[in-house]
Each structure stands twice: as structure tokens, then as C-alpha cells.
Specification:
Shape: rod-shaped
Structural class: alpha+beta
Number of strands: 15
Number of helices: 6
Radius of gyration: 54 Å
CATH architecture of one domain: Distorted Sandwich
Largest sheet: 10 strands, antiparallel
Order of helices and strands: HHHHEEEHHEEEEEEEEEEEE
Distance between the termini: 150 Å
CATH class of one domain: Mainly Beta
Strand content: 15-25%
CATH superfamily of one domain: Glucose Permease (Domain IIA)
């Protein structure tokens, strides 16, 4: 019992000694930290001073400044040009609002050019060859060489210059002649009919009759040369014939009067006469004929 008390006393004295030493050192006695391990003692570490790195110490990047000055759109544009994306990429970039100068070539691909620092990439094409003609070259812009739906006279000349009127199909000739009257009202068609004068059946009507009051303006169906202007002894009365070339002719009959002479050149739409009822006629009208190589054909195949 005495030995146990003596050991306890020694332990208590030892604890007090350690407590006193801890107080002298300026910190409380602890045997463990918050995580259960003894906290290390010793002088506090000095803060680590980072090394100053100057711009002069870095290796020089020659392209760093250029990259800073280029916007993202500029970089995408240069990539598109360098990789040969083509004109579609350039047009798409232009649609986004980037300032571009675009030259769209006919056949050549686009190439990206431009100096660093410019406001935008400049897309340009390879230089197209200049087209020129010799000083003595003949450039023909005649109406027979150029024809459109708005140039019916040119269409007719081209049609007749390629072949004679006798070989022209109805589909090709339709619409090639202009109307001889401002308003066409059929009074009697081309072909066999009952004669309005004799009443006999089987008379062949050589043209197309259009109703028109006497004195109505009659127009040339196309440009040509007047080959006849006078009285027709076989029922046509006052008659005008115009030759349009290559076997095509038009005639205007039963006229009250005419204002053209033989050999005169007329143009499509010119007023050549006034309608009437002269010759074998029962009333005011225009008898209009189309002749191909001297033979009458249905005028409606050409109007």
C-alpha cells in the first residue's frame, strides 16, 4: 500500500513539473491535437517569397501580339481561307456581321489574303483573263442573230432565214405574224364554205375574214416590201400585197383605200390601208390572206 502511494506521488510531481515547463514556454499542455496527433513544435515557417518573373526573362513569342489583336471571327476567317473552305464559308461569315470584302469568282476558289491588323479578312479570287477582240473584228448584233419573245420580227426573220416558208411547221409559225387589226373578230374562216354571194356550197375561201367597220386601220403583219397596191380584178377590190422574204407573203383585201406604193418598205404594225367593202364583198370587213410560195394557207397558223 505504501509503495502504491509513493508511485502516485511521484507521478503527480512529474505532472506538475511538466505543467510548469509548459507555462514557462507560453503554451498550454496538450498531449493531442484535434485529430489525435501531437502537434509539432518549433519556430514558425517564414512565408515563401515567389520569384519575380519579368517579361524580359520570358522567351519571346513572335506571334503573341498578332494573336491578341485578332478577333475570334478574324481567326475563323483566316482558318477558312487557309483550309480552302471556299466561297460558301466566306458568305456565311459575311452574314454574321463581320466586315468582309468578298469577290466571288466564276470558277476559281477563294483565297484569303490581308495584312495583320486590318479590320477584316479580304477574300479575293484569281485574276480572270481579259476578253478582247481584234481591231478589225466584226461584231454582229443584227436582229436575225438575236431574237426573243419580245421581238417577233426577229423571230420571223430567224425562222425564214433558216428554211423556206414552205417547210415551216405550224407549231413554229404560230404567233410569228402580227394581227392586221387591233381587234380580231372572225366573220368567215379559211377553207370551204357556202358562198355569201351566190349561196352555192363548196366555195373555197382563200383567207380569213375579220369583221371591221369601213375606215378601220389595217396594219402590216410584219416588216417587208410592198409588191402590189391597186385593184384586184378577181374580187379582191382594193388590194395590198407585202413580201416578207423566203416565200412568205400577206395580202389585205376589200380596202376602202391604201397609203403605200409598190417597192415601199414597211415595218410590223405600220398602217398600210383602211378597211372597206370593195370588190366581191357583201359588207365592210377585211379579207386577210397568208401565202407560202404562192399558195394560200390558213392565216390562223401564223397569227
Amino acid at each position: 500500500m505504501l509503495a502504491w502511494r509513493t508511485g502516485s506521488l511521484h507521478s503527480l510531481i512529474r505532472i506538475r513539473q511538466l505543467t510548469s515547463q509548459a507555462i514557462q514556454r507560453g503554451r498550454p499542455l496538450t498531449t493531442q491535437n484535434a485529430r489525435g496527433r501531437r502537434r509539432a513544435t518549433g519556430p514558425a515557417l517564414e512565408p515563401r517569397v515567389s520569384e519575380a518573373v519579368t517579361a524580359a526573362g520570358r522567351p519571346r513569342d513572335l506571334h503573341r501580339d498578332a494573336r491578341r489583336r485578332r478577333s475570334p471571327f478574324r481567326q475563323v476567317t483566316e482558318f477558312a481561307g487557309a483550309s480552302g473552305v471556299g466561297q460558301k464559308a466566306g458568305i456565311a461569315l459575311a452574314a454574321t456581321g463581320l466586315i468582309l470584302t468578298v469577290t466571288v469568282p466564276a470558277t476559281s476558289p477563294l483565297a484569303a489574303t490581308g495584312e495583320i491588323g486590318s479590320t477584316g479578312a479580304v477574300l479575293s479570287a484569281s485574276v480572270q483573263p481579259e476578253v478582247s477582240a481584234a481591231a478589225g473584228a466584226k461584231v454582229d448584233f443584227s436582229r436575225t442573230a438575236v431574237s426573243t419573245t419580245g421581238d417577233p420580227d426577229g423571230k420571223l426573220k430567224q425562222l425564214l432565214s433558216a428554211q423556206s416558208a414552205g417547210t415551216v411547221s405550224r407549231a413554229a409559225s404560230a404567233g410569228s405574224l402580227g394581227t392586221p387589226l387591233d381587234s380580231l373578230i372572225t366573220a368567215s374562216p379559211f377553207g370551204y364554205r357556202v358562198s355569201p354571194i351566190t349561196g352555192g356550197y363548196g366555195e373555197f375561201h382563200r383567207g380569213q375574214d375579220f369583221a371591221a367597220q369601213c375606215g378601220t386601220a389595217v396594219h402590216a403583219a410584219a416588216s417587208g416590201t410592198v409588191t402590189f397596191a391597186g385593184w384586184h380584178p378577181f374580187g379582191g377590190g382594193n388590194r395590198v400585197v407585202i413580201d416578207h422574204g423566203n416565200g412568205l407573203e400577206t395580202t389585205y383585201n376589200h380596202l376602202s383605200s391604201f397609203n403605200v406604193n409598190v417597192g415601199q418598205t414597211v415595218s410590223r404594225g405600220d398602217t398600210v390601208a383602211l378597211s372597206g367593202t370593195t370588190g366581191a364583198s357583201t359588207g365592210c370587213h377585211l379579207h386577210f390572206e397568208v401565202m407560202v410560195n404562192g399558195e394560200v394557207v390558213d392565216p390562223m397558223g401564223w397569227l
